[in-house]
């Protein structure tokens, strides 16, 4: 027992160190993804993305921003095939915006069940490393209320993508987007 | 030991905030929410049936190999048409509730007609063979039809699974009375507060107008090559 406690303590400290790579790089000899041996080690390749569990009102107020940033809000879920398929386009767009220092922010809203957040959603997002703010909208019993509040024509099918600017909804797209479709949707807002 | 693991977890969690420090937008959080509902420019016109429309009949292949049409149900007072499928987690969550709907209402004149609208070439779990397996495993007592040409779901205007259309026979027409979700809690059947579909059929059986005629819920988009980009 004592041994295993010590083992846990060691593991724990490694884990903590690894969870903030940028700070601890010099102290942590095993930084980055270890592609060679010992794949069983619980060393994260990157930081776990922060995913905030919220209700509709909180998400809506998050979008009421009086600044020059264009917010792209993507509703998705790990189980949704077309959502997962379009993620790389959102990632590369967001990366490009960041590189060009554009006032742009991607907001990813997961509609997964909150009880799989840590086991499924977080690892899934970590693997994809998307430059975005992540939320999990835990408001399943009020879908009939918030879906039409977001958009009267939204059937509830996902993926669904919104563009917000100055606290106002500028565009809505239901269904998946390819690279061209995403660029077209955003071209009048981000240059 | 357990305490240590907890501590470890807490420490990791607190460290996770370093992921958020680089976030340039956190300073905006203080902005007050505006209580306005902005309109969307150029919203696409909704397709399919509206409440009060007459639904066209169809003939689709059931899991038993036979064709099924609404006209086959001479004694029915109406129908609970549900676009659903095998693979979708929401559809799965509702499997038992769909079985229960048929159990409760088939004898009263409102049988369930389940239709899988997906293209199996896109979602192999929704193939005809897999549908047969599911219907057998779950003991479906209602037709589980495949929309092979993918023409029926667009006529209805179904756009996700599960998507319910409740029809009532009036002068030999099937009039759409309710469009939407089965209830308000896909996650926990035991915590449902509003049973939309049941309430609609109960109202029709009582000769009363349906109170809530339309609801929306998150669901899986229908898999169709024609509409997928």
Q: Which stretches of chain A are low in confidence, meaning pLDDT under 50 for 5 or more residues running?
A: 1-44
Calculate the mean pLDDT score of chain B and round it. 85
Shape of chain A: globular
Structural class of chain B: alpha+beta
Give the terminus-to-terminus CA distance of chain B: 52 Å
In this structure, how is the largest beta sheet of chain A organized? 6 strands, mixed
How many helices of chain B in DSSP terms? 6
Describe it:
The complex is a heterodimer of chains A (191) and B (229). Chain A has 2 domains: 1-47, no CATH class; 51-186, Glutaredoxin (3-Layer(aba) Sandwich), CATH 3.40.30.10. The longest helix of chain A has 19 residues, at 81-99. In chain A, strand 6 (160-165) and strand 7 form a beta hairpin. The radius of gyration of chain A is 19 Å and the shape is globular. Chain A has helices at residues 2-18, 21-24, 56-63, 81-99, 117-128, 143-150, 179-186; strands at residues 51-54, 70-76, 104-110, 133-137, 157-158, 160-165, 168-174. Chain A has a 6-stranded mixed β-sheet. Chain A has 191 residues and is α/β, with parallel strands linked by helices. Chain B is α+β, with helices and mostly antiparallel strands and 229 residues long. Chain B has a single domain (54-221), classed as 3-Layer(aba) Sandwich (Glutaredoxin). In chain B, 27% of the residues lie in helices and 19% in strands. Chain B is built from 6 helices and 10 strands, in the order ααββββαβαβαβββαβ. Chain B has helices at 2-16, 18-21, 89-105, 128-138, 152-156, 196-205, and strands at residues 54-55, 59-62, 67-69, 78-83, 112-116, 144-146, 160-161, 163-170, 173-180, 219-221. An 8-stranded mixed β-sheet of chain B has the order 1-9-8-4-5-6-2-3. Chain B has a two-stranded antiparallel ribbon with strand order 7-10. Mean pLDDT of chain B is 85; it is low at 1-46. The chains are: A alpha/beta (191), B alpha+beta (229). At the A-B interface, helix 1, helix 3, helix 6, strand 5 and strand 7 of A face helix 1, helix 2 and strand 10 of B.
